[in-house]
Structures are given as structure tokens and as C-alpha cells.
Write a structure and sequence with these properties.
4-stranded mixed sheet; Adenylosuccinate Synthetase, Chain A, domain 1; 3 domains; about 425 residues; 13 helices; alpha/beta; 10-stranded mixed sheet; binds guanosine-5'-diphosphate; binds magnesium ion; Adenylosuccinate Synthetase, Chain A, domain 3; binds 6-O-phosphoryl inosine monophosphate
Length: about 425
Amino acid sequence: MPAIVVLGAQWGDEGKGKATDLLATTEQIDYVVRTSGGHNAGHTIVVNGEKFATHLLPSGILTPGCTSVIANGVVVSPEALFRELDALEARGVDVSRMVVSANAHVIASYHSTIDRVTERFLGSNKVGTTGRGIGPAYADKVARVGIRIADLFDEKILRAKVEASLEVKNQLLAKVYNRRAVEVDAVVEELLAYVDRLRPMVADTSLLLNRALDRGETVLFEGAQATMLDVDHGTYPFVTSSSPIAGGVCTGAGIGPTRIDRVIGVIKAYTTRVGSGPFPTELFDEDGEKLWKIGGEVGVSTGRDRRCGWYDAVVARYATRVNGLTDLFLTKLDVLSSWERVPVCVAYDVDGERQDEMPMTQTEFHHAKPVYEYLDGWWEDISGCRSFAELPANAQAYVRALEEMSGTRIWGVGVGPGREQTLVVPA
Ligand code: GDP
Ligand code: IMO
Ligand code: MG
């Protein structure tokens, strides 16, 4: 299995970090690669009871012998990169096998400034971003005024690009947002400070990964964000500014689609969302509170509470379709112990009409009300189960029902945050 994609099938925080770590430690994975997003991600990995969180770095950084790659599609804050590397190193993690694409775009401090002021100006229409400068950095990339990692190695080019990038931004900052203009010198100085540490890590990562695949090595592409946050296929405009779906892996890494062998969608046994935007199965009652509490649904990056709701099979089918999923990895099944019946959304009622697929327009999606089927619950604590057969009959039936409704086989089930708390589902 040379090229495997792991991605989020809902609105993020499905447990991609855990799924990646599990594969990296149980299969022979040579490279773990991030291809989109930046340090807006927060992936939790629990190893022998010890908790780690990665943001910009691929979770493979925790697997000895694995090379971690930040590919061209990622937006890189050098400050966040070294903060994260230093923090892991201080905990004894070997961070020497780290490679960064020369073509990745850079997030400078002005990108986060713009992210925050834009959100403030949007008022009640705000996206609820992480404030990390992700959107403004991708906007610069598409507007062709971005700074790339390779630019940091030529001060003259860097200065010219920073000047060009700040020309319009400074007008906006001063005249529209009533903020102080950003000094070119200060930005150049800020970025040059990272050059010496960056230089040995920088490579042509497309070449590196294609050669690895040619040699038959295994490359795991670790998704960040998720399908419903995709700028094309998510709940636009309440999305991130990149393409976290499977197709985005090809552009974000510089590999062809024929290279990919397996696409695993990570999905929670219920649903959560952080930030603004429509969420048909969202709960505002004690069930939502209970999911939030038992699931520990607080963001890893921003500390914000996650909105909680029931499993949405329409979203699962949609994720299956737009990503060409080959498997699902169902996480947090343990959180659902102690419900008499568990509702699962099988379709939407949109203005009185049943729709089994994702509505075509955002307006319809905003109007979508869940149509529920009720599955029998279970009371047993399942966090100690180590095989699918050990699960209570109703928990097994829940997994099988979700598999049927979602249109993809469920390959694994998570019954706790630890590496060992995973069950393989018999085919
Ligand atoms: P990611 O962004 O997709 O990597 O997910 P996050 O790390 O942001 O959020 C997932 C949370 O669920 C983390 O706290 C994980 O430790 C935790 N988690 C992952 N799988 C399971 C599981 O099967 N059961 C439980 N109870 N927690 C899990
Ligand atoms: P992981 O990889 C959940 C959400 C933000 C906001 C929207 C846009 O941990 O699953 P951005 O800062 O990207 O411009 O914010 O996207 N968001 C996430 N939600 N998990 C994430 O990452 C997210 N990354 C961004 O809350 O609604
Ligand atoms: Mg997360």
C-alpha cells in the first residue's frame, strides 16, 4: 500500500491524529506528509497515556524512523514551526527527520493580524477562524503576492516580494481597518531570523515523495481540517481556505492521482463543529451537553468549545463521494455508551421535501432539518474492548448500520484516545 490518505470526513477533529499515529506505528510507514492547511490544525495523539498535540507538524513526527514532510500545499508560519519543534524536542522527541517544501507559502505575522481584523469587521457574519492567518496567506497565494519558503533564502527577492505584498495591505490596514501599517523592514527581519534553521530542512518535496513511491516506500498523507471545511466542497463561506479533500492531496504534494491506493475517511460516531456555519444535527439540549462532556469536546488549537450533534449519514455519504473513500475509521464510539436509543440522521427535510443527498445550494443546507432513525443503544463501558466481537451486540449493530448508511466499509473503530483503544472491524 504505497500511498495512503487519511482525511476528515466531517467538520474536523474526527481523530485524524490518532488514525495517522495508529497506521504509522502498526504498518511500515516511511513518510507522513501534510499537504494543506497550517497551524490551524490540532491533532491529538495519546502514547502510553502521554498526550501530544501537533498543529503544523505531521503526527508522524512522533514515530521513530518516520520522515515528516510539510509539502507545497501547506501554509507555514516559521514561528509556529520552530515553536512546535522546540516543544517536542524538549519532551524528548527526535525532530531531526523534518522536511519542508521550498514552494510552501509563508505565514508572516501580518497574515494573522489581517485574519483577526477581517473577522472583527464581518461581525455576526464572521467565519470563526482560528485567527492563525490561514485565509490571508492562501489569499496572497492565489492573488500571486505570496511569499514562499524559497524566497527567504534571497534577501533581495524577499524584500521585493514583501514590499509588493504589503503595498495594498497597508492601505487597507490604515484606511479601512484603522490599524498601523506594517513595516517592510520589520517583516524581512522577522522572516530572515529563521533562515539558518530552515535551510537544512528545505527540499523539493514533490521529487522526494515521488521517488519514495517509485522505490515502493509507503507514504501517508495526513489530512488537516475536513471535507465539510473544504473551500470548494464544504459549507462555503464557513470553510477554511484550502482543499482538505483527497483531490487536494495531489496538488498539495505534487503527486498524481493514480499514485493513491487507499483513502481513509476519519469520522466520529457523532458530529462536532468549531466556528460558525450550518450544522443540521446540532443539539442544543442535554444530549448535546452530554456528548460535549463525555467526548471532552474542546478544541486542541484554540480551546473553543465544539458544537455537538448526532451522526449525519448524509455528510458521510457526501464525504465518501467527493473523496472516493475506500474505508472509514469510526472514532469515539465509547462516548455513545449510556443512551437508550441513538438517533442517526439518514436524510434531510428541506422545506418539507425529503433529500437523501447533500442539498445543491447552501440556502437549502441552511434549511435542512435532520430525518432521524433511532438505533438501540448500549450501557456497557466499551473502552476496554480490544476486538470487535467484544463489543455489546447493539454497539456492533450501530457500527454495521453506519457502514450501510455511509456507503463505505468501516475498517476500524476507536473506543478511546489511546493507540491501543482501536478495533479492527471484520470485513
Ligand atoms: P483531529 O484534529 O482529527 O486529529 O482530532 P482532535 O485531536 O482535534 O480531536 C479528537 C479528540 O478525540 C482527541 O482528544 C483525541 O484524543 C480523541 N479521540 C480520538 N479517538 C478517540 C476515541 O476513539 N475515543 C475517545 N474517547 N477519544 C478519541
Ligand atoms: P483539525 O485538523 C476543526 C475551522 C475554524 C473555522 C474555519 C476556518 O484539527 O481537524 P481557518 O482558521 O482555517 O481559516 O478557520 O475552519 N477549522 C477547524 N475546525 N478542526 C480543524 O482542524 C480546523 N481548522 C480550521 O474553526 O470555522
Ligand atoms: Mg483537531
